[in-house]
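Table S7 (text form). Paired inputs.
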Amino acid sequence: MSGVVALGWALMALTHPTTTYHFAPVVVVAVLALYVRARTEHPVKIRSGLYLSAAGALIALITTAGVESLDALRGPTLWGPGGAPAESLLAIAAGFLIGLTATVTSRR
């Protein structure tokens, strides 16, 4: 799941390098954990949640590094300083927390 979303993000970034896809790293990180949680009836163990979120984060980090190395993260940021790569790192951290929280909490 995360790989498919990451591939889509990379293709969009490569074809439109001055456009920033601000929430793509969040989705790349969290989608695997959210998918697993949607398919299970009960919350998963915290260790599994950590593994799922870490796998998504690794995919997002590799994608960020690849897209940045091809100079395709030239767009504007939401909060100014640091550039798009720094914003992507913050988005990856946010996605990690979202994915982890979603997997270990119960649905109401």
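Next pair, protein 2 of 2.
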Amino acid sequence: MDDKAIIEIFLKRVEELKNTKIVREGYDSGFTLKWTKESGVLNFQFNQPDEDLFRSLLLSLRHFFQEKEPTFINRIYNICHLCLTNEKYKNYLVKSRKFLNEAMKSTGVCLFKQRDHL
């Protein structure tokens, strides 16, 4: 498969991802632990997205993160890097890849105490 065909499939997959309900409408997820000394009670609240919506999102995302897929994101980065001639856009591409690689290493979990980031 040539690079042009791969990019066309990539763009189709991006549209599919953009059109998932969870991407269009967003979702609220997270958890809260509250304990008060006075009551001695620990309260736990957990919010998560609808399972079917989340599954739909994951099925769409897999096309970008499985190496065997033609739209594997690192393959797309490589194609773009070879095709771009504008240095400004190449620099955006480098920054984007670096940002994605750092995000992939992160757990995505942040802790807050009394609304202050730890």
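Residues 3-117 form one domain.
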